UniProtKB/TrEMBL annotation:
Source organism of this protein record: Cyclobacterium amurskyense
Name the UniProt record assigns to this protein: Dephospho-CoA kinase
Signal peptide: none
Summary of the function given for this chain in its UniProt record: Catalyzes the phosphorylation of the 3'-hydroxyl group of dephosphocoenzyme A to form coenzyme A.
Cellular component annotations (GO), alphabetically ordered: cytoplasm
InterPro entries: Depp_CoAkinase, P-loop_NTPase
GO biological process: coenzyme A biosynthetic process
Gene: coaE
Amino acid sequence: MSSTVPLLVGISGGIGAGKTLVSQIFSLLGIPIYNADDRAKWLMANHLPLKTRIIENFGTSAYFEDGQLNRQYLAEIVFSNPDKTSLINGLVHPAVGEDFKLWASRQPTKYVLKEAALLFETGSYKTLDFTIHVAASEAIRIERVKSRDVQRSTTQIKQIIEKQLTDELKNKLANFVITNDDSILVIPQVLKIHAQLMEAKIKN
């Protein structure tokens, strides 16, 4: 691989862990951020090959007449059916992966960050050079989500948490862990990881 190609670094964390806040700190250091979840929504609405496959598997009702994604329709199908969840993920995640690599190849930096909610759950962390997990206790995460998303109940938030891998497992899978529970300052942790990544080399 050419030395001009940036290191591919993933950053993730369970709901309420604060991965977006941490990503913003990296951004202030000049690191480009690829938001995989936002980009997935864009690709589902605008990437013709992906749209075609979604229609083939979920029907024409997956899109409105104006071509925009019918999120509610898809969510109702996918949410309660693990097989359908796997199917949509199998369509979307590869498209996001290719889009990310193309985007990353155009960035003039030592490394780039791919921010994704389900980085470890989907296995996409295996395609990256390094990964960062943002961790916080379940109690803190629940309070954060409730304060920013008042319509969600504690039960609903716990259901989302239960569908994600545990922090313990993600801590083991990640190359770096950032603790974001107010017990330790976040910025020094980011600066330390940033310094290490600036010196790191692409894995063989």
